[in-house]
Amino acid sequence: MRSLRQHLFVLTILIITLTSTYVEICHARKNTHWRTKDEIESSFSTKKHKGKSNGTTHHNHSSKHHPSPKLNPPPPPPPPSGPSPYAPVTPAPPVLHGTTFNVLDYGAKGNGVTDDTKAFQDTWAAACKIAASTMVVPSNYEFLVGPISFAGPVCQPNLVFQANGTIVAPLNHKGFTSGLLQWIEFTKLRGITIQGRGIVEGRGNYWWNINSDSDDDPSVRFYGSYNVTVTGITIRNSPQFHLKFDTCQSVEVHGITISSPGDSPNTDGIHLQNSAGVTIHHSTLACAGDDCVSIQTGCSNVFIHDVSCGPGHGISIGGLGKDGTMAVVSGINVQNINMTGTQTAARIKTWQGGSGSVKNVRFSNIQVSEVETPIMIDQYYCNGQSHCANKSSAVTLSDITFQGIVGTYTVQPVYLACSDNTPCTNIHLADIELQPTDGINHLYGPFCWNAFGDIKAPIQPTITCLKNEK
Ligand SMILES: *[C@@H]1O[C@H](CO)[C@@H](O)[C@H](O)[C@H]1NC(C)=O
Ligand SMILES: *[C@@H]1O[C@H](CO)[C@@H](O)[C@H](O)[C@H]1NC(C)=O
Ligand SMILES: *[C@@H]1O[C@H](CO)[C@@H](O)[C@H](O)[C@H]1NC(C)=O
Ligand SMILES: *[C@@H]1O[C@H](CO)[C@@H](O)[C@H](O)[C@H]1NC(C)=O
Ligand SMILES: *[C@@H]1O[C@H](CO)[C@@H](O)[C@H](O)[C@H]1NC(C)=O
Ligand SMILES: *[C@@H]1O[C@H](CO)[C@@H](O)[C@H](O)[C@H]1NC(C)=O
């Protein structure tokens, strides 16, 4: 009897212990779960209350957002009999994939004045550790950020930068003029997507008035990355280049808007360098200061289509071969483009004295409106410098097609100035229909120098200067 009682007592203790352990585990887990949910909810609710971001200390999930996998699975306790306030929940596996990290939770203020660079860095550091996670820049906020590098050699693949809000450039001299290569950099990533309706505001009207040593610092630069997607965002008023890809592979840019006003210097829209497999489509590129898209050495398999461009300098390959350098570009396909008020529409420009080649280039179905010189090859490019010495070597140009270039021009319809020593070969002109813009005088006729190839009607105006292949 006594021993039975003892047994019962021990059993009771055991049950109580187990039950309370279960309750604790369950409570802890539930708490974690609840906190996570709360974090997300409060992120959203802060989002709704503009300018009232608060409780960042409660939201800091860089350390506790994700339960360590070691905690799971806990020993399954025997379900306590009777109703429990803690309904037995099937423990969800820790979410270590596709998690969201909001910059507000890392202390970003988003008031356009406070420097949020550190918060962005911390958010990135957390997101970077989890494959396919998303760093969120929420809408209705303006974040003063940069210069900043979202660097990835140790990051997990397929990260998403959800840009819904506005990111504004800092106004201090250490930003763009200190030899930094960019304002916002994404580097060495495997799978990076920038998406959202956000605005990247470079405040160029401030920077354009400051003399800078460098003339090609991009606002947003991708370096050494694979599988890059940029979609939805607007990049505007960049101090210099808007968007640059250097040493990247498999890049897709679509549905973006780039804009800067007419008096902005050297503000290329999209600058490509040493990159392969780039597609740019369904985008609006208005960069009065320079090229809509500029394709530099080391680029291959570039496909640009359904883009509207202007004002600006047009879509250009080059300038290549500066200071005797070697340049290699091939497989460039540009089609279905609207060009309005640009300097050129389809252009290849090389400096004298370079080497290398440009081949397999096709510009087709380009609608031009009041474009100065729609079709241009310039192997004497000198970028406004007064004395570029004559040199015999040149980047070699071959297999270049201009087809379906239609609309109005204001200076000269076709200008093909090839190198004295290495003529352009296999130039194909087809379906060219270019009319002078009404009321424009002092127009030049088509010009060719050392350009060889063929012409397929209709051609308007008549072009007689292109020589047949030798
Ligand atoms: C932020 O939260 C603290 C308590 O955590 C509260 O005292 C303070 O009033 C809150 N501030 C705002 C702006 O909501
Ligand atoms: C978040 O937590 C981490 C680690 O506990 C800490 O280093 C960091 O400063 C915290 N950030 C904020 C914004 O509180
Ligand atoms: C960001 O914007 C997209 C729509 O463009 C929306 O689906 C998403 O919920 C937004 N995310 C946040 C965190 O606001
Ligand atoms: C890029 O994406 C493709 C298709 O999604 C995938 O097969 C490839 O492994 C990715 N490349 C890298 C370097 O992640
Ligand atoms: C070009 O303009 C025409 C109308 O002139 C329009 O139908 C077409 O969608 C435009 N294409 C692009 C890429 O903007
Ligand atoms: C280069 O050659 C052109 C044509 O032969 C000539 O008119 C020009 O003066 C030369 N320029 C220089 C800097 O030698």
TrEMBL record:
InterPro entries in the record, alphabetically?
Answer: Glyco_hydro_28, PbH1, Pectin_lyas_fold, Pectin_lyase_fold/virulence
Where is the signal peptide, in residue numbers? 1-28
**Which keywords label this protein?**
Cell wall, Cell wall biogenesis/degradation, Glycosidase, Hydrolase, Secreted, Signal
Subcellular localization, as worded in the UniProt entry: Secreted, Cell wall
> Per the record, which residues fall in region Disordered?
34-91
- Major localisation: secreted
The biased composition feature labelled Basic residues covers 46-68
Gene Ontology BP annotations: carbohydrate metabolic process; cell wall organization
Q: Which GO terms describe its molecular function?
A: polygalacturonase activity
> Which segments show compositional bias classed as Pro residues?
70-91
* Homology family: Belongs to the glycosyl hydrolase 28 family.
The protein in question is named Polygalacturonase
